[in-house]
Each structure stands twice: as C-alpha cells, then as structure tokens.
Amino acid sequence: MSTPHDNSEGPRPTVFVERQTYRMRRTMDAARLVPLLGLLLFAVPLLWPTDPENALSTSKTILYVFGVWLMLILVTIRLSWVLRSLPPSDKAPDRGGER
Amino acid sequence: MAKKVLLIEDEPNIIEAISFILSRDGWQVDTHSNGHDAAEVVRSKVPDVLILDVMLPGRSGYDILRDLRSGGGTEALPILMLTARGQSKDREMAEKYGANRFMTKPFSNSEVLEAVRDLVNA
Amino acid sequence: MGTLNALVAVCLTYVAMLFLVAFFAERSAMRGRGGWLRSPLVYTLSLSIYCTGWTFYGAVGYAARSGLEYLTIYIGPSLVMVGWWWIVRKLVRIGRTQRITSVADLISSRFGKSTLLAVCVTILAVISATPYIALQLQSVTLSFAVFAEAGGGGQTIYTGESTALWVAMGLSLFTVVFGTRNLDANERHHGVVMAIAVEAVVKLFALLAVGAFVVWGVSGGVSETFTRIDASQLGQWQMNGGRWAGLIMLSAAAFLCLPRMFQVLVVENDDEEHLRTASWAFPLYVMLMSLFVVPVAVVGLDLLPEGSNPDLFVLTVPLDQGREGLAMLSFLGGFSSATSMVIVAAIALSTMVSNHIVMPIFLRMTGGGATVSGDVRHVVLLSRRVSIIAVVMLGYIYYRLTGGGEALAAIGLVSFAGVAQVLPAMLGGIFWRGATRLGAMAGLSVGFIIWLYTLFLPSFGPGLILPEFVLQQGAFGIDWLRPRALFGIEGLDPLVHALLWSMTLNTVAFFGVSVMTFPSPLERLQGAQFVNVFQHSGGPRSWSGGVAQSEDLMIMAQRILGPAEARALFRREATRQGLRGDLPEPSPDFLENLERELSGSVGGATAHAMVGQIVGGMSVSVEDLMAVADETAQMMEYSNRLEAQSRELTRTARQLREVNQKLTRLSVQKDAFLSQISHELRTPMTSIRAFSEILRDSDELSADELNKYASIIHDEALRLTRLLDDLLDLSVLENGQVSLNLREGQLSALLDRSAAAAAASDDGRALRLSRDPSKEALMLHTDLDRLSQVFINLIANARKYCDAPDPLLEIRVTDHGDLLWVDFIDNGSGISDDAQDVIFEKFARVGEPRVGGAGLGLAISRQIMQRLGGEITYLRGENGAAFRVSLPRPAMAAQ
Predict the structure, then answer these.
(1) So what's the ipTM on this one?
(2) Which of these, A16, C357, C479, C516, is most buried using a 10 Å CB contact count?
C-alpha cells in the first residue's frame, strides 16, 4: 500500500478505500491465489521417491492428496462466502485487478 | 420694410450671383463667408430667411444647422440649404437636422427666388 | 436371467423417469415457475457430466492399473473451478454478453466471427468426441454384458452391438426431444439440465454406496481398508512424474475446452452467481466421486479372479458379494454417467455442426439468404436434429468399427488431448488482445496435426491407420518424425510426449503468428470486447442502419426465433427507441441486439452474415469505426487536423475581415472622392448658370455689369477646364498609363521657365524668389515637362498661400551625388502639423479662403515624382511651408 504521507498535489485516487471494499479486493486476490496454491501442493507428489525401498505407502499419499483437496474446497467455500456479499454494482468490474 | 436674407457661402461668384438675384427682387441681402462664427452672425442679424451652404471653411453647414435648431431663437428660422455634393445622403442629413428646403447646385435663379419667397410666406 | 430382465425393467423405468423429469422441468420453465431449476445446486450437478461412464467405471480400472494416477483427471478440473475467478468467470461473462452458443462459436466470435475457425474447431471437436461417445456406448454395453453373464449368458438379444444400438437410438431420441425444443441455445435446456442433475445425484449416490459397502461391508472399516490398500499391489507410490503433472494440466484444459463442458459451464449457465457455489461444490463432487475408487480397486483385485476386467469392478464386486440391488444401483450410476455425457455432447456438437457447418452451407446454397428462402427456423431445427442423430450414430459406428476393447479404453485421454488444442486460442482470445485469427488458425492447425500424428492415429495400434514402419522409422523414413519420438526425443510416455509437443508447438504457432499478423478491425473490436468484458459488457457495434429494411429483418427474425418471440423482440426494441408500433428503426443498436439474439440460435458468424445480407453490406466497414473510436493515435491525429483546420479558418477569416475593411475603406474613399469631384464641378457650374441666367433675363444691365458677369462665366469655365485637365492627368498618372518624355535639360533653365509660368497666372500675389544659380548648374535627364509641372505647382502654391506680408520663396538646390534635392521654402506661417499629413491627398486644401484650384496640385505632383523615380515630401522644421523634391541619380545627366 502507498504511504499516507505522499501528499502530491492534485486529485488522485484515494489511497485507502473503505474497509469493506478493501476486504473485498483482498478476497479477490485470495480467490486468484487459491488455484496456484493448489497447483503447488498437487505438484509436491512429484518430489516423492518412487524407488520401491523408500516409496510412500498409498494410504499416506491418499491422505495427503485428499487432505489438500479438502483444504482447497474449504478455503474456496470461505472465499465464495465472502465474495457473496459483493454489492451488485461492485460485483462485475473491479477494474484495478481485472487482467 | 424689406425682408432680410442672410447668405452664408464661401464661393465669391455664387455670393455675387445670389445677392444680385435677391436684391433685384427687393430683398435685403447680408452675406457671410466662413463657418466659424456663422451661427453667431445668424443670431445677431436675425434674418427672415437663411441660405446656408454645406461646404464651408471652418465649420460644416450641417453643424451650423444643428446649432441653430438647438436654440437661441433660431429654432423656427426658415433655412434653405445649398450643396454642391448632390448625394441623397446630403438631403437626408439636411432634413434630419431641420432644414426647411434643400437645393443642389447648380440651381436656376428662379428656383432660389421662389424658395426664398415660399419660406418667408409659409 | 431374472436379474437381466429386472435390469432391463429398471433401466426402462429409469429412462422413463428421466423423460418425465425433463418434461416437467421444461414445462415449469415455460410457465416461468422454474425458479428452482435455476439454482446453483442444479448448475453444479450439471457440471458433473464431466464424470462420464468412462470415469465411473474406468476410474477403478485405472486405479487398479496405475494407482493414484486416476486422481489427475479430477484434480485438474477441481483446480480450474477453485480458480474460477481467473478463467471460468470470464468465460461465463463473455458467453452471456456475446450470446455464445458453443466453444466453436466462442473462438469464431473472438476472432472476427470467422467461419473457417468455427469449422476447424467443430471438426476437431467432432473427431475427438466421437471415440468418447463410442466409449460411453461401450461402457453401457459392457455393464449389460456383466449382468448377462451373471444371469447365465447366451442371450443374443443383449449382444453388445444391439445394446449399443438401442442405447444410441434412445439417447438420440431423448436429445432430439429435449435438446431441440428451443432453438436459441441461450434459452437453455432446462429439461436436459434437470435430467442430468438427477443423473448426477444417482451416479454419486451409486458410487458412494458401492464405496461404503466395500470399505465398511467388505473390508470392515477405514483403517482396515488402509491396511488392505498398503498391502496390495497398489500399496506404494509409483508415479510417473511427467504423467502426473501432464494429466493434471490436460484434464484442466479439457475441462474448459470439451464442447459438452462448455455447454453446461457457459451456455447453460443461468446466473454468474452460480459459479460461486460451483467453485467449491464441483471439486467436492469429484472428490467424493474419486474417494472410494482405490478401495474398490484394491478389494476387486483381492476378491475377484485374476484376469477379470478391473473396469467393471464397480459392478462385479457387489455382484460377487451377492448384492444384486447394489449392483443394480451401480449399473444405474454408470448408465447415468454414460447417457448424460452422450446427451450433452450431442447437443453441444449438434449446435456446432448446425451453426458452423450446415447453416453456412445452407445460406450459401440458397444464395439470397434468409429473406427469400423458406423458413430458416425449421431448417435450423432440422439440421440440429439431424446433427444430433449423426453425432450419436457416428459414435456407434466408431464403436462398431473398432470393436471396442482395450484400444477404446485408452481413447479417453487421447480425446482430451485433442480438444485441449483449443486451449491456447481460447485463453489467448480472452486474455490477450493481440491474438489474431491467423494466429488461432495456425495454433489450432499445428496442434491438431501433431495430435493426429503422434497420438490419435497411433492409438488405433500399429498397422491400422498408420503403417508399422511409420511408427518405427518416422514418416518418409525421416527419423525425427517418428510419431512417438518427435525430434528424436525418446523415452517419454506417449501421451506426455504428444501433449508436450502438440501444446508447445500449438502455443508457439498461435503466439508467433499472432504477433506477426495484423488483425482485421472486427477482430480487434471483438478482441477488446472479450478481453475487457468486465469493463464494458456491450456487444460489438458493427452495423449502420438506414438501409436495412426493418420488415426484412422481421421476416428473417421470425424464421429463426419464431413469430411470437421475434415480434416481442421487435416491439421491445421499438419501445426502447420510443416508437409506436412493432417495427423499430434499424439503428446500429437494434441491429446489434438483433444479431446477438440471432447468434444465440445460429451462431455468431451466421447471424452476422444473415444480418449482413439484409443490411446490404452496410457494415460500417468497421475500419472507419475503429479509426475514429479505437485508435487513440488516429483520434489525436484527427483532432490535430481539426485544430489545424480551425486555425486555418481563423486565419482566413481574419484575412477576409482585413480585405473587407480595406474594401470598406476604399469604398468610403471612393464615395468621398466622387462627392469631392461633384462639389468641385458643381461649384463653377453654379456660378456659370446663375450668371448666364442673369445675362439672359436682365435687360437693364450696365456695360460694366455685363462685362463683369461675362468674365466670371469665362473664369469659371476655365476653372472647370482646369479641373477636368487635372482629373484626367491624375487618372492617367495613377493608372500608370503615362509615357515619360525623357530629355536633357539644365535645372536652372527649368526653374526659370517654371517661375515664369507660375507668375503668369492671375491669382496669387507677387512673390520674390531667392535662388542660387551656381548650384542650379546641373544637367538633368528626365521628363522635363512633368518636372516643370511640379515646380510650377509648388511656386503657384507659394504665391497663393504664403501669408507673409512680403512673400519670399527660397529655392535651395543640394546635390548629394546619388540624390538631388530641390527645396521650396517660403516665409509664410507654414502648414499646420495635422494638415501636413493630408496635403498630398486629392482635394486636400489648406487654408482659407480658397483661391481657385481644386486641391489636386500636390496629389498630381506626388504622382509625377513617383513616375520619375523620386519623391516629394513636406519638410518639417522650416519656418514657412517647405517642400522637398528629390530626384534620383539617373535623373541627373552625366556631367
């Protein structure tokens, strides 16, 4: 975030948006981040040893994969719950971050 | 008693001609030949008719006319304007400022004579 | 046998129930009571067609063969949905604002409504979907066979071929009935979606039931199950890393690109809000679907005899345990998976085939287009129905030709890889404005060819389509063209190998060609619309009205949308335009809306073409539009040009004003001049007339008087003549028509003559001249007469106007070498400052009373001096009136 003591002249966008809008923006950021996090976590099994001596047992891997899965789902539930409260006008465009 | 005509004109030959015509008809003719003091001369001489040229040295005939019409006992003085410029604009100006008659040079002697008579009798 | 009959009965009942569900859903939607149909839950469940019969049965088989690798098929889509904010949200928004009907329509619309691209995507989709449909038919057939075996076998009625045929026909019927009820794909198939949602519940429930039975019924609990898993041949993490990553990517891509997924995800979407629920609910659904796969596989491997088909464990395990009811449920689950996939795929593909292949051909064949041909609405419906049947039958034929079996089982991922080729064009299209039609074409073609060569054709096995030696040695014997080892890189998993090369080269071609080519205006417009869909949700603006006939448009719209809807649409538009009646003006707005409505029925490119035919090519050649609207640079240039023009105008206006002022001044001057001439002419004439009348009318004039008056008349006549002479002189001089008579002469002699001439005139007083003859001894070469005229005028003026008691005129000559000055200075009071400026003007006269002369003398003198190359000026600072005549050197003769 910009520092508040940046008092350049002329009108400029408010540095601090309303608390609720701010929360919303960050939730959108989080929503964008979730799949990347998921991708990362689901890539972890690539590092697991595959030689028969050190290989992980399938039960453990199942627990890991489904654990990650469930975690992603729960996070998404939480995020979609927050994003639900977007006021209708604000819902569609969030120009700043729409890329 | 003879009626008085005052002629304000700067061209000597024309003064001579008009004086001749009018005096022969029994008028008393006074002349004056510049514009500067024309209005004062008119007021002091109190003529029955004034013949006023437009192009005068010192002051334009229209100026003098306006001056005379603005007061000093000459508001109703019969005035015959003479001009050699002969444009309709001149006639308009003369009417606007209150001339009774307007004539373009060259004129016929009888015209002048009749005009002066008319102006006095009117 | 009893089982089999019961199965058939249950199956038919189930199908009948589906028909009913679809029917009632459709009906309540028509009556506008279908609120519950448009719930996020239904939407999420409809997405479950991702889990087809292949995944329902095959996942277990997959797990039995390759362990946890099957999870990748579910993880990919889960990630896509969890990341809905990125892609899916945008796709849905674009789909809704642009009324996209299919994935082919999306690509086509994005890249300038290109028909060719749409055809390419359609063909690609059909090619990759056909084996998949065959796969579904196979799964149903196989599951039937399981029951047939269990029931004693030998029943010829239930042979694979006939089962598949019956299923195919039933599915075609269902799809035709509920899939082509509404023409506008965007009006959504509520019946179909509802039926699919029901099937989704059935298949999840079935799989969970089997799983629960296996875990708690067979294995005896969760921990026991885990122990059992670890002890089995699947007990260790044995994963090909390339496949794990590659398949996650592949399934994610396929999830977005599969026509049937696009259908339910984007086209059937009622409300963007539903995505929010689906974002977590769909991952949850597929997670549950995959939860018990490994246990079932492990138990199946444990319990069933060696060599039994692991693909059917979901059925065979319950059967083996004597749980026929459960097996029946499981069968229904599989049946549901297969049928829902086929139905939606058939709808999606038929929309594409009909909109992008049949309709363009139909339009071209009928030539004149929608206005003259028959009822397009029927044509579209018919073509769509035929397409549905064709698509399903194509799957059946494929199934029959390949004979099913293992080769078919592998085709699922191959099919995925095929449709995934659309991904670069799709993502590039919605996120990158620089993507061009040619880029998309290039990427698609390259990807498609590589996929065909490295994956699809080899999947039939060596010798079937690709000859053995091509697989071994590469096409034309070129080693690096080996389908399984492009560029000589060996040892990769064939799927990963094909995926790597096709997607890489696809993306490179797409990007490279896009960068190198320039998009058409329409493409750029659409690109902006797609990429910035969240900024402006308006459609592309490309029609200009005026020429389009509203009646024609009405006729066309009726044929496509149906009379009632078309009239409603037109009335709505007319009302919006503030018009009464049913026909709106063909404004760009209206045409745009109409085109969008139509594109919901026949696809973007076709709708564009149809409106185009009626509007008569009055497409605002979008270039103009772009030039003005989109290109800021051009805007700037344009405005600069305007600014320059306006500056130019201002300048011209100023010049005009100046010229006008000059003309006015000239006109005033001319009036004054004429008035002056009039005065100068009339004054002598007045005297002449007056005295001639006196002479005529008076008899008693004395001889003196007679003489005097006659002289006056004479003098005034002379004055008139002089005036006319002067005027003519001036006119000649001013017009430059004068010819100079150059002669040699002595300055002193000239002055003598001039002084004498001036003195000869009557008017004026005696004037003494003061001269210095020594200085006047100069030879001149000039027009001596003209110069003398100037001198005479100056001397005469001094005579007339010098007011000194003893008038004296000094003539002072100064020779400056290249310039000769002749000054005339009198001892009078001179000319006042303000009069000095005007003395050279015509009719300017200074002093009073006037003595003859019309005031043209100095004006003429000035003209003469100009002609002679010199000048005449008034000298300030002298005591009296002083004039200087300057003559240039050439006027002075050589000494």
Answers:
(1) 0.90
(2) C357
